[in-house]
Design brief:
The protein is an alpha+beta fold. Helices cover about 40% and strands about 20% of the residues. The chain contains 6 helices and 8 strands, in the order αβββββααββααβα. The strands form 2 sheets. A 6-stranded mixed sheet has the order 1-2-5-6-8-7. It has a two-stranded antiparallel ribbon with strand order 3-4. β1 and β2 form a beta hairpin. α3 crosses α6 and α4 packs across α5. The radius of gyration is 16 Å and the shape is globular. The two termini are about 30 Å apart. The relative contact order is 0.18.
């Protein structure tokens, strides 16, 4: 990605962040941004058998795409890009747990839920995965994430063509208890090392 495009994206990202009320977990040092919302959709059963129901309070999880793009600028290798993202997620989850644990309304929050195309390899991290309904909102989300892939991924255009206009858009989610028990600061994520 060239510097001018990255700069324009940075301006747009500030506007997007304010319009969506996203909160930084740790600006410039964490891959996640979040917003507290009521979950809307079918029941989600987490790995520890917690059920997130329609109307439950959740922490909606967003990967900070612009921040990730600045970190992977110049990275051409697809494997290095995937490993960088995985490392950033692993480093960010303990801070996310601390953030949630410090919230005044943490007792009402059922879990964390995100919508992403970057769902490969998240199951060992404790996330569950499910399909999303192709409503107008998720069609827009798919279009937006396809655009992000084309911009950020070194082979984005070719990858999109290989998917033949399909986007593996999924929900990824985790219960609050699982997040806090596994990723509270000071704990080493199970089966993971840096």
């Amino acid at each position: 990605m060239n510097t001018s495009l990255l700069m324009l994206w940075g301006y747009w990202d500030e506007i997007y962040q304010r319009c969506t009320r996203l909160t930084y977990i740790e600006k410039g040092n964490n891959i996640f941004r979040v917003v507290v919302l009521r979950y809307r959709g079918e029941p989600l059963v987490t790995t520890d058998h917690c059920i997130i129901h329609d109307g439950d309070l959740i922490l909606k999880l967003h990967i900070h795409n612009y921040y990730f793009a600045t970190l992977c600028k110049g990275v051409k290798d697809e494997l290095r890009l995937a490993l960088l993202l995985r490392r950033l997620i692993l480093q960010s989850l303990p801070k996310l747990a601390t953030f949630l644990d410090s919230m005044e309304n943490k007792d009402q929050i059922k879990g964390i839920v995100g919508t992403t195309m970057l769902h490969k390899g998240v199951t060992p991290l404790g996330f569950s995965i499910s399909d999303v309904p192709m409503t107008w909102f998720f069609r827009y989300k798919r279009w937006y994430l396809r655009l992000m892939l084309r911009i950020v991924h070194p082979n984005g255009k070719r990858r999109l063509q290989s998917w033949n206009h399909e986007m593996p858009l999924k929900r990824v989610y985790m219960s609050k208890e699982f997040l806090l028990n596994r990723y509270a600061e000071g704990k080493q994520p199970l089966g993971e090392s840096y």
